[in-house]
Write a structure and sequence with these properties.
Helix content is about 45%, strand content about 20%. By secondary structure, the chain is α/β, with parallel strands linked by helices. The protein has two domains: about 1-125 and about 260-320, D-Maltodextrin-Binding Protein, domain 2 (3-Layer(aba) Sandwich); about 130-255 and about 325-350, Periplasmic binding protein-like II (D-Maltodextrin-Binding Protein, domain 2), CATH 3.40.190. Strands 1, 2, 3, 4, 5, 6, 7, 8, 9 and 10 form a ten-stranded mixed beta sheet that branches. Helix 2 (about 35-45) packs antiparallel against helix 14 (about 285-290). About 40% of the residues are buried.
């Protein structure tokens, strides 16, 4: 409780201090910083400022984002207007009443965005996938994995593998390997029997996993050094390896599709401008196309894929052929179950 109070106090203090520095007609945007912030300032902010006459002040926040938003909302002083919201944080924001309901008559008046992009309290602006990468120079000649059952087949595909350390998505991959249909994944995983089944299946492959990776960069290094032949990673990392000429093949089938939202902070005084930013970010096809040259995490702007060179479109998680075999990661499930499953995972690793 004391830790929570300290976090809240820090957030409120930061909000109070910032409020004096924000001028009128300035939208405050929270992003995850780094290359995402750089790309946002380069490709989306100019389009918004030109169209509306507003300015954008960007602040970086990642691990403390939801705590800071909650502190602002509870204090009645939401200095941030718009914020990136990860898929795992989206249900938290909804459950705690931290986000405004999106008015799609303002964001998407012609109804051009697909339903998957039109969440009640946030618009999906980017997507990425956790996929399987295969080092084709070291895998059996003429053979590529096409299913998670192949990943578990150590006779046909011998050699070391690597998965991300943690239960998230590894349990889903295990169930897919065990024959569960994509549409039934979370129905099965929501039962004690389904969880047991997933852990039992992971036990079959455990001896072939010398390293459980903890960062995307580590997974890339494991593959590049030949320490493992097969490893999961994020599609952006995989595409970068392909572009660099590293002999990597991506298996999209059975991949976990993740979404990132833009949400409007509850109680913002700049509600109309916030909706205008969501509209520009979500529906400006030209800006999204330029953004993809920088980061391969597409949104759903109308005509986006059709406007891209074929070789670029084929590397994206939303390309129809890639999307067809993926499942949408259920972040609500993980938000509700992560603590118990993480505890079981840690115990399982120690067995």
């Amino acid at each position: 409780m004391q830790r929570l109070l300290r976090t809240t106090a820090v957030g409120v203090t930061a909000s109070m201090l910032m409020s004096a520095a924000v001028s009128a007609d300035t939208l405050v945007l929270s992003t995850s910083g780094g290359v995402v912030a750089e790309a946002t300032m380069k490709y989306f902010v100019p389009a918004f400022e030109k169209e509306t006459g507003w300015k954008v002040q960007q602040v970086s926040a990642e691990g403390t984002r939801m705590a800071e938003i909650e502190a602002m909302v509870r204090a009645g002083n939401p200095v941030w207007d718009v914020s990136e919201i990860s898929a795992s944080n989206y249900p938290i924001g909804v459950q705690r009443g931290l986000l405004e309901e999106v008015n799609y008559e303002l964001v998407d008046p012609e109804g051009l965005l697909p339903e998957i992009a039109r969440a009640k309290y946030g618009v999906v602006t980017a997507s990425y996938s956790t996929v399987l990468m295969q080092n084709t120079a070291k895998s059996p000649e003429g053979k590529l994995m096409t299913t998670w059952a192949d990943f578990w087949d150590t006779e046909t595909f011998p050699g070391p593998r690597s998965l991300r350390e943690g239960p998230e998505y590894n349990l889903e991959f295990a169930l897919l390997a065990d024959g569960v249909a994509i549409d039934d994944l979370y129905t099965v995983l929501a039962t004690p029997e389904g969880i047991d089944r997933a852990f039992d299946k992971l036990g079959e492959i455990r001896e072939s996993i010398p390293v459980w990776w903890t960062s995307g960069a580590q997974s890339v290094q494991l593959l590049t050094d030949g320490e493992v032949i097969y490893a999961t990673n994020y599609n952006g990392r995989a595409s970068a390896m392909v572009k660099a000429g590293i002999p990597i093949s991506i298996m999209w089938n059975g991949g976990a599709l993740h979404t990132t939202y833009l949400g409007i902070v509850k109680g913002t005084k700049n509600l109309e401008a916030a909706h205008a930013y969501l509209r520009v970010r979500a529906t400006n096809t030209e800006s999204q196309r330029e953004y993809l040259n920088f980061l391969p995490y597409p949104g759903s702007a109308p005509g986006l894929l059709e406007s891209l060179p074929q070789e670029v479109a084929e590397q994206l998680p939303t390309y129809p052929a890639n999307l067809a075999g993926q499942y949408v990661a259920n972040e609500e499930f993980w938000a509700a179950n992560i603590e118990a499953l993480r505890e079981r995972w840690d115990e399982w690793l120690l067995e």
